[in-house]
Amino acid sequence: MCVLVGAPGAGKTTIGNALAAALGVEFRDTDQDIERMAGKPIPEIFVDEGEAHFRTLERAAVAAALASCPGVLALGGGAILAEENRVALVGHTVVHLSVELVDAVKRVDLGAGRPLLAINPRATLRYLMEQRRPLYEEVATATVATDGRTREEIVADILPLLVR
Ligand SMILES: Nc1ncnc2c1ncn2[C@@H]1O[C@H](COP(=O)(O)OP(=O)(O)O)[C@@H](O)[C@H]1O
Ligand SMILES: O=C(O)C1=C[C@@H](OP(=O)(O)O)[C@@H](O)[C@H](O)C1
Ligand SMILES: [Mg+2]
Predict the structure, then answer these.
(1) What is the C-alpha radius of gyration for the chain, rounded to an integer number of angstroms?
(2) Ligand 1 near 148 CB (within 6 A)
(3) Which residue is closest in CA terms to ligand 2's atom 6?
(4) What is the pTM (predicted TM-score) of this model?
(5) To test the ligand 2 pocket, which listed residue (3, 13, 17, 31) has its Cβ within 8 A of the most ligand atoms?
(6) Where would you find the membrane-spanning parts of this chain (predicted)?
(7) More exposed terminus of the chain, fewer Cβ within 10 Å: N or C?
(8) CA distances (Å), 38 to each of 8, 55, 72, in order?
């Protein structure tokens, strides 16, 4: 199993899908699992129940996804904030998809659905990325840079990192 971590806009969901397709294995994304568990989209969970409740659902989703062992698993950008999740990742192949602020801002601008970035996405992303970078590095067994690179180039970089 390969777990993808990184900042919002790093491409975890996109690259995870492409990587799983290239390998012919199952793809899971904890954000999609959380939406299914909650029966509503992530922005609504934040509005109705708050971030703390989202993080509780996220810890359950990470534990369940790791236990079910899909071929490729994308985590939400903030999943590594919980020590419980960082501990659960030990022993797995964890790839940090790194991204600099310029590309991350461009990419998150492409889509809605990230409640933490609803207001002033650039400043918020800069803060989140500074706060979290050491945690992504702590859990990662490898880092792949995504800036200015195509999905195909990134997938090609990840494939040799996977022990079969
Ligand atoms: N390497 C890339 N180059 C250009 N755009 C990308 C790349 N990877 C992802 N994207 C785009 O960036 C946006 C965010 O990607 P997403 O996979 O949702 O990131 P994450 O799950 O890490 O937040 C999407 O619109 C996606 O199509
Ligand atoms: O950075 C975060 O705290 C979050 C990132 C999102 O996932 P992506 O990193 O896939 O955008 C999603 O889990 C939620 O909006 C919270
Ligand atoms: Mg995602």
Answers:
(1) 15
(2) no
(3) 76
(4) 0.98
(5) 31
(6) none
(7) C
(8) 21, 12, 22
Record the tokens describing residue 104, joined without a space.
């991350």
- Sheet with 72-74, side-by-side order of all strands: 27-29, 72-74, 2-5, 93-98, 142-145
32 C-beta closer than 6 A to ligand 1: no
Strands 2-5 and 93-98: parallel
Ligand 1 in contact with 104 (CB < 6 A)? no
Which residues contact ligand 2 via a Cβ below 6 A? 8, 12-13, 31, 42, 76-78, 114-116
Look up tokens 């995504």; give the residue: 146
Of 2-6, 110-114, 144-148, which gets the smallest average pLDDT? 110-114
Look at residue 2 and give its three-state secondary structure.
Answer: strand
Q: Is the CB of 9 under 6 A from ligand 1?
A: yes
pLDDT tens-digit profile of 3-52? 999 999 999 999 999 999 999 999 999 999 999 999 999 999 999 999 99
ipTM of the complex: 0.99
Q: What is the pLDDT of residues 62-94, one digit of tens each?
A: 999 999 998 999 999 999 999 999 999 999 999
28 and 73 in contact (C-beta within 8 Å)?
yes
User: What letter does residue 85 receive in the DSSP assignment?
Assistant: H
